[in-house]
Amino acid sequence: MTIKCLAFDLDGTLLTDQKEIDSRTKKSIQRAMEQGIHIVIASGRDKNGTSFVYEPLGLEQGKHYLALVNGQIIYDFEKKEYDLDDVLTPEDGLKIQQVCKQFDIEGIFCCGYDFYSYISDANRQKKIEREKLSGQPMDYGLKKGGPNRNFIDLPYKEIELTQDINKVIMVHTAQFFEKHLDDLKQALSDYDVLLIGPEWLEIMPKGVSKASALKKICKRGGFTMDEIMAFGDAQNDIQMIESVGIGVAMGNAMEEVKAVANVICDTNLNNGIGKTIDALLMGKEIDLRHAKL
């Protein structure tokens, strides 16, 4: 199988737990680029939030792409063009606010570089105390992705946001999501609901995914989905991993991601991506069901 494109999720996949790219992994990716392989960064982050990855890799100087906000936004580095898929409407925002109240959970409405926190006064006070005790920032680090980013507290009443809503993040404890995930998915059945991490849930418009973004990128890049190798670790990577020629789950991936992957590689802390790319460039057969690298 010929691979012409490599697609990478970031957190828990291409990035270590320190939010860095392993130097060995970086070298492997750059060797692949030298051989004409296209690179896609497929992330829940926005463009500014991925610059610390694509700039060191040199993606701006080639025919490479970003699939941002879980595939909602595509950026073509060669043409310097954006492509935007469906967004959540103000009416969707109101429906999701009702679910936030029903489950007493914080919802963060992501509107471009503005992040609106919808949370009860009691839970906001708990966040303030948690920040004092543990240092966890009130904005969960969302403002660090670049300049002009705002984290705004909303009143805890029905608020109609006039901006396009890219996605909604729900934040709670791992124990809460273990108990209530199915109920949340039922309450939010009009949307795609994705567990990104143990304490982090993301709500997207139906049908908008990293997989749908890759299909558009294929048309731009002149290759097929069967010619893509994609790496991921969480629920927002499942459709992508299922739809490409070789889907790779990280060794640290969620079990449901491993279940659909062709290959399970080493972890994000042990150069899993680099080892897999090196095997690809050496011509090693790696498209076996659940082969381990």
List the helices and strands and how they pair.
Elements: E1 5-8, H1 10-14, H2 23-34, E2 38-42, H3 51-57, E3 65-68, E4 73-76, E5 81-84, H4 90-103, E6 106-111, E7 114-118, H5 121-134, E8 150-153, E9 167-171, H6 174-187, E10 191-197, E11 200-205, H7 210-221, E12 228-232, H8 238-243, E13 246-249, H9 255-260, E14 263-264, H10 272-281, E15 291-292
Parallel strand pairs: 1-2, 1-12, 2-3, 7-8, 12-13, 13-14, 14-15
Antiparallel strand pairs: 3-4, 4-5, 6-7, 6-9, 9-11, 10-11
Q: How would you sum up this structure, described in words?
A:
The chain is α/β, with parallel strands linked by helices and about 290 residues long. It is about 35% helix and about 25% strand. It contains ten helices and 15 strands. The strands form two sheets. A nine-stranded mixed beta sheet has the order 5-4-3-2-1-12-13-14-15. Helix 9 links the parallel strand 13 and strand 14. Helix 2 runs parallel beside helix 10. The longest helix is centred in the N-terminal third of the chain and has 14 residues. The chain is globular. The C terminus is likely disordered.
What descriptive keywords fit this protein?
293 residues; alpha/beta; 6-stranded mixed sheet; 15 strands; globular; disordered C terminus
